[in-house]
Specification:
about 65% helix, single chain, four-stranded antiparallel β-sheet, MetI-like fold, cell membrane, AA_ABC_transptr_permease_3TM, Amino acid ABC transporter permease, two-stranded antiparallel sheet, transport
């Protein structure tokens, strides 16, 4: 005889106020309803007030001629271009100072964080003093300070400082040599190829080290590739490449690459301010690694710099990355203070746009969307990297 096993039936949930699950659903629906009503009221009230005052809405103004100049831009721009292109120029200017600032603040802050842990008394105290002073002075004051230093104290173009041949520093900004010619595209392609090859080699080296314990000289190999591949691409192309040096003509320099006083002051302020916070993040990350790791690595004959690079910092990264993400986001958002010293970032350009068009709400939405997109992109990348280096339990 076949034995039939009856499975226990799941009791049906009764809709009762005493059921916590039912109550939680009702509460959530009520909260969403209240939020939805609040948003509907704000939007409808705003549209009504705009209609009463005969203020047009929408983003159609983006296709109209801007009619105002922008001091510096990454791409070609003239006042005859549209408001949309002007805003795009502002976004690119913000991205330029943010990317350069993040890279510089990371390098400088890492050096400061390591210096604060130095066994040399003078180096450690100087690094500590720098960190404490710069962290406690508001960024806006630092921007005013550096802008005043560049525009008021630096000499004019005729007496510009010339620390390195082809580099001039004056109250008109920083002048650098620039590259021109058809070979520039080939060189950039060589750099991109070198980066791809370095990433592939890094992946292979990590797998090889896990399997054999042998360390591959990735840093030296990467430097060689970054120098060799662009040079090879240039030689293969046979294209021309010229170096244009800044030259004093009249009352200012012509030619070369120009970094305006506004850009230089903004970049200096962001890097100096943020690097102090980055230094504390790096210091705390290094100190989170057990002292036994230093002793064990030293016992097998590794020098202190090699212990730091090969043993301590890879472990400290798991502690460093999350707070470092916050510092990158802060630097990007703090770049909005550029409007105080006249650098044409997204905030400055949109302010001019909404003053001319009266599209204040649309302008604020564009600024919010721009910063939200950049911040979320940084967060996604850093979270991905943090997940890549996280310890995986077996």
């Amino acid at each position: 005889m076949t034995k039939i096993t009856l499975l226990p039936q799941t009791p049906k949930r009764r809709l009762s106020w005493n059921d916590p699950g039912v109550r939680s659903i009702i509460y959530q629906v009520l909260v969403l309803g209240i939020v939805g009503l609040g948003v509907w009221y704000l939007v409808s009230n705003t549209l009504h007030n705009l209609a009463v005052r005969n203020i047009s809405t929408g983003f159609g103004f983006l296709h109209r001629e801007a009619g105002f100049a922008i001091g510096e831009s990454v791409i070609d721009y003239t006042p005859a271009d549209t408001y949309g292109k002007a805003i795009w120029v502002g976004i690119l200017n913000t991205l330029r100072v943010s990317v350069v600032g993040i890279i510089a603040a990371t390098l400088f802050g890492t050096i400061l964080g390591i210096a604060r842990l130095s066994k040399n008394w003078l180096v450690a105290r100087v690094a500590s003093a720098y960190i404490e002073v710069m962290r406690n002075i508001p960024l806006l004051l630092q921007l005013f300070f550096w802008y005043a230093i560049i525009t008021e104290i630096m000499p004019g173009p005729r007496d510009a400082l010339n620390p390195v041949p082809g580099v001039f520093l004056s109250n008109r900004g920083l002048k650098l040599p620039s590259l021109h010619g058809d070979a520039l595209d080939w060189i950039l392609g060589g750099i991109a190829l070198a980066i791809v090859v370095i990433v592939l080699i890094a992946h292979w080296a990590r797998k090889r080290q896990e399997a054999t314990g042998q360390i591959f000289p990735l840093v030296r190999t990467g430097v060689v590739l970054l120098l060799a591949l662009p040079a090879v691409a240039w030689l293969i192309s046979g294209a021309t490449l010229t170096v244009e040096l800044p030259e004093l003509k009249g009352f200012n320099f012509v030619g070369g690459l120009n970094l305006s006083p506004e850009f230089a002051a903004l970049l200096a302020g962001l890097v100096i301010y943020t690097s102090a916070f980055v230094a504390e993040v790096v210091r705390s990350g290094i100190e989170s690694v057990n002292q036994g790791q230093w002793e064990a690595a030293g016992a097998i004959g590794l020098s202190r710099p090699r212990v730091l690079r090969l043993v301590i910092l890879p472990q400290a990264l798991r502690v460093i990355i999350p707070p470092m993400t916050s510092q990158y986001l802060n630097l990007t958002k703090n770049s909005s203070l550029a409007v105080a010293i006249g650098y044409p970032d997204i905030v400055s350009v949109v302010n001019t746009t909404l003053n001319q068009t009266g599209q204040a709400i649309e302008g604020i939405l564009i600024i919010m969307a721009a910063y939200l997109t950049v911040s979320l992109s940084i967060s996604v990348f850093m979270n991905w990297y943090n997940k890549r280096i996280a310890l995986v339990e077996r």
